[in-house]
Amino acid sequence: AELWRKRHCEANAKNTALVWNFVDFARRHAEAVETQATDEWDQRLEQASLLIIEDIDAAKGKEAAQEELVRVLDWFASEQRQVVVTAKNSPERLKVLGARLRSRLTSGLAVGVASPGVAARETIIGQLAKMFEMELGPQAIESMAKRTTANYPQLRGMVLELRTSMRDEQVDDV
Fold first, then answer.
1. Per-residue b/e over 104-141, b at no fewer than 16 CB within 10 Å?
2. What separation, in Å, do the N-terminal and C-terminal C-alpha atoms of the chain show?
3. pTM
4. DSSP percent split of the chain into helix, strand, coil, nearest 5
5. Torsional sign, CA 138, 118, 129, 4
6. Which 3 state secondary structure label does DSSP give 136?
7. CA pair distance 86, 70, nearest whole angstrom
8. Which of 78, 88, 118, 144 is spaced 20 to 30 Å from 47 by Cα?
9. Average pLDDT by consecutive 10-residue portion of the chain (174 residues)?
């Protein structure tokens, strides 16, 4: 999601993106309702040209947030703005979603994503290292990529953990 956001915003200086996991979306919406700040909530959403909601699987028991997401998806569609929603399963298999939200998500493009291969993991690790301003040598990147079958969130976690442990020194071998 971070790479999507970055590329979207770099493509045009006027582009703005909101990236939240579903739990954060639900929490922020609930806070806006509780503090009577729904106009500010709407303004923030209206300023975004891209909305990314990660981990929609966490929507169980959050009916108000699901309904708000339906409203937001409808608005983004009417304005021809982009939305990316991530989940561990396809929308039709997500029984935690209400019928209206599942309907909105199944009407769009659903793409299954397999875990990346070694070459893709090398590229991802290299890009993450650059994004987090780390200096990783090519051998370290190759070694990390070959020792795991991790997906993007797991690779991101690995790189962040390594960043914490390395304190700005160049890593040549892992």
1. bbeeeeeeeeeebeeeebbebbbebbeeeebebeeebb
2. 27
3. 0.69
4. 60, 10, 30
5. positive
6. strand
7. 15
8. 88
9. 66 80 96 97 94 92 96 95 90 90 89 88 95 92 94 90 74 52
**C-beta of residue 65 within 8 angstroms of C-beta of residue 33:** no
Rounded to 5 degrees, φ, ψ at 75 are -65, -45
Q: Which long-range contacts (CB under 8 A, 24 or more apart) does 145-153 make?
A: 145/118, 145/119, 145/121, 146/118, 147/174, 148/121, 149/115, 150/115, 150/121, 151/113, 151/115, 151/116, 152/116, 152/124
DSSP assigned state of 17: E
